[in-house]
Structure formats: structure tokens, C-alpha cells
Write the C-alpha cells for this entry.
Amino acid sequence: MARHLYLCPLRWSDMDSLRHINNVQYVRYLEDARVDWLFNRGELERGEDEGFLVVRNEVNYRRQLHYRHAPLPVEVWVSRLGHASIEVSYELVDTDEDGARTVYADAKSVLATVDMTTGRPKRVSAEFRAFLEKFLDEPGDSDA
Amino acid sequence: MARHLYLCPLRWSDMDSLRHINNVQYVRYLEDARVDWLFNRGELERGEDEGFLVVRNEVNYRRQLHYRHAPLPVEVWVSRLGHASIEVSYELVDTDEDGARTVYADAKSVLATVDMTTGRPKRVSAEFRAFLEKFLDEPGDSDA
Amino acid sequence: MARHLYLCPLRWSDMDSLRHINNVQYVRYLEDARVDWLFNRGELERGEDEGFLVVRNEVNYRRQLHYRHAPLPVEVWVSRLGHASIEVSYELVDTDEDGARTVYADAKSVLATVDMTTGRPKRVSAEFRAFLEKFLDEPGDSDA
Amino acid sequence: MARHLYLCPLRWSDMDSLRHINNVQYVRYLEDARVDWLFNRGELERGEDEGFLVVRNEVNYRRQLHYRHAPLPVEVWVSRLGHASIEVSYELVDTDEDGARTVYADAKSVLATVDMTTGRPKRVSAEFRAFLEKFLDEPGDSDA
């Protein structure tokens, strides 16, 4: 299994009046991690009509996160691959030189694949499935 | 049990390029529903030092929501009341003249009560508990 | 001349880490004031193809604004009406019982009218011009 | 004169329902360009109490901008340096291999220097002035 790594740039305005990154902005980071993974990298040939709707989001906030110049690493992978839906998992995590990980949040999204021209559910295409399988967490994989 | 009703104003910019309300903005609506409930209404006397951190959010998106002039009703209640944490539940829902409900999303947040001056966990005060109990879903309550 | 009055709801997240309303959010309020004025009120019949592009924004910040439950009044009017462009002026202003005004910001936007199906410039239609003229500041009007 | 170059990452959500970058988000980019220039780069030693308030923003939108993976270059410089205020100018601009420039917007902000502990106006310190002078547009400079 591979995880896609997205280096998420923070914005100063992601802080709220408590002077930490606002909890809602973490959900924004998930969105940009998906866009980076599924749209920007160009590894994936998808039909024009293939799209997604987010049908569920869940986020566990582990540590407060403060604004910083350095981008925030977001790891993305597939934790369940269905016929017309995908569960995507994420960790927002710094890793130090010794490999020690500081997890700010873990999260999951369920995406339904839809035909963007009609808005109707659509099966995951064979090409897209092949792409997603590269990021699929094996059953028995540890705690991700 | 009472539910707090927050009439959430939408912004045109809450739409994304798919021309529906962006999934992240629903999480923003939860935040403003909490602020309306816990801060703006003035029914609640809280110590200056009592605050919250969001430790978990989950949202199930039931229907696409489109921009509209009319505010979006958000119902808020307490689904679990612990010693130093609260689970808040929400429904984003239109109700028609006959009482039929159209649920756009249901959601839950877990909040940890903290001392805002030190950032340390803090027990829910007696006054705050008394307030929250008015919104507490009884065990055995139906479909919340 | 009439001014359109938009009562702009604030969001808690409009505050930044300096604990006042962030300067960029004022520009967001201008957008929603325009939407309220030109789209939501239903007084205006416009062709489906009539739209706008913002070609200039300017904002003078007069006072710091803090988050509050009460909406912020935004006054909107037309300060120049051209063949294919409109200058819209705004004041973000509280008015007390005695009529004394506290101006948080004044602003102007220049909008170009465009054919939304082609993206090309388009003359202001006669119907739209008639609507806009009701909000046109007369030359010689005082300090607006 | 030098211009500071900030490579501004776009977010998918910066698009609005017209499927271009929303005009308000350009103003957000100006904010992050300033933060990058004045806070993140570490070239500048400033007292803890030195801060800014934005007292004016103006933006001229020259071309529509679409979401893209590549960051948007924002050039920043000082166009006027007063005793307690600074006018900052910006261009949002792509430059091709031949040096041809595509300007999406030009903008100016006026910043007032304030003592952050009291919120009162404050003169620009000698150290900060020395920093700003490196970015000061000379009278007679061409097209800035």
C-alpha cells in the first residue's frame, strides 16, 4: 500500500480568534488533499463525467495546530473500495528526522462516485479502480 | 428535551464550483450553530475561563443543498453529557407546513471543556451542566 | 435616491487571530450585499444571461469591527451608471436611536455587465437600467 | 528596487460558482503575500509590539483567473513609505519564458503601523524602515 502525500500550505487566515488553526479548516485541508491526489497529479486518466460527492466526513482532532510557514503533510489513502463508493482516510502528521510522528488529526471521508452530467450514482470505472487499488490499505494493516 | 434552533444565513460564496453548498461549509454552519446556542443567546452565565475545544466532528451529507435567500434551520442538542466532554448533535433540516422534514445533513461534535486561561481540561461547571441538561436527549428518545 | 439596506449576518469565523473582523471579510460582505440587492429581493426581472464581473474593489477601513450577534447594516447604492459598467458604493454603518452614524468602512466596486453565456461585455438592459436608476446617487448629493 | 515574490498556492475552494477564482479571494492572496514578506521570511527583526492595521485595499481585476495546481506569483513592493503608514503595491502575474507578463490583477493596500499592545498608532521603527526601503519603488520607476 502507498499513501499519497500532500504538502498542504496553511493560510494565516486559517487561524481563528483562539489563535490556533480552526477546526473547520482541517476539513478544507482534506478537500485539497483529495484534489491534489485525484486531479492535480496527472497520473490518473478519468472520464470527463466521473466525479464525486462527499457523503460523510469525520475528523478526530488530536493536537492543536498553529499557523506556520512550512506546509502541513497530509497522508491520504483508500481504506475501503466499494462499487460506487470509496472511503478515504487521512492523517495530518509531522514526521521528525528519527521518524517519530506527531499526528494533529486523523480523518475519513466517504465519497460516492457520480456521473457529473446527470448527478446519478455511477460505478467506479475499471481505470479508476486500478488507480485506487494502489492506495488501498490491506486488511490486516496495522492501525491506519 | 428541547432542541436549540439556529436559523443559519447562507452566503453566496458557500457554493463551490459544482454550484451547490460545499461540504466544508456545513461544518462552518455547525460552528455558528454552537456559537448562537452557547454564546449569543445570553441565557447562559458562564465563567470567563470556560471554553471548549472541538475534538471530533462527523457529518453525514443526506442531500445536496443549494444557495438560497432563506436561512437554513439547524437544530442542536446534547446527545451525551460527560464530566469534561459533551457530544453535540445537529440536524440541518427544512420542515414544511405539514411538519414533513427534509434533512440535508446530520452531524455530531465532541467538545472538551477547557480552562481558557491555561488550556487544560476542566470539569463542566454546575451552572453549565444545568443549562446543557435542558438540551439533553433522553436515553430511549426516538430518532435523534 | 434610495439606498438598499442589507443586514449582513456576521460569522464567528470572520474574526482573525487579532480578534477583530478580518479586512478580507469586509469584501465578502460587499458581495453578499450585492447578491441581496440584485438577486434575492425579487424586485428585479433580469434576463438569464445578464451577469456581472467585478473589475475593481476599493475599501476604506474606518474603524475596527468586532464579532457580534446583531447583523451589520450595509447600505448599497449606484454612484455611476455607464453603458456596460456600474459603480456601486457601500457604507458599513451602525445608526443609533438619534440617527448618529458609526461608519466601519466605505467601499466601491466597479461591475462590468456581461453576457453570462458567452462571457462577453453586454450593455445594461433597459429593465436593469430602470432598476438601477432608483438607487443612483444624484450629482450634487452630499457626502455619499 | 526589489520586489518580493510570493508564490501563492490556490485552493480548489477559491473558485466560486462561476468556476473562476472569486474576487474576494484575490484580497486573501494579498494578505498571505504580506505575511510571507513581513513575517515568514525571517529577514526582518521586529519588536513584538510592532504590528499593522489595513486601512485601505484596492484591487483592479484585469483577467479572470482559473484554479490551477501551480501557485500564482504575487509581486509585492512598497509604493509609499510614511512615518506611520505604508502603501504596499502588488501584481498577480504570470511571466512566460520570454518574459511576457500576464497580469491578473494589480492592487494596493495602505497599512497603518500600530503598537499591538495598546492598539495606538506608532511610528515605523528604524529597523523596519531599513527593511522596507529595500522594496521601495523609486519615483520615476516605470510601470509599477
Summary: Chain D has one domain: 4-133. Chain D has two helices and five strands.
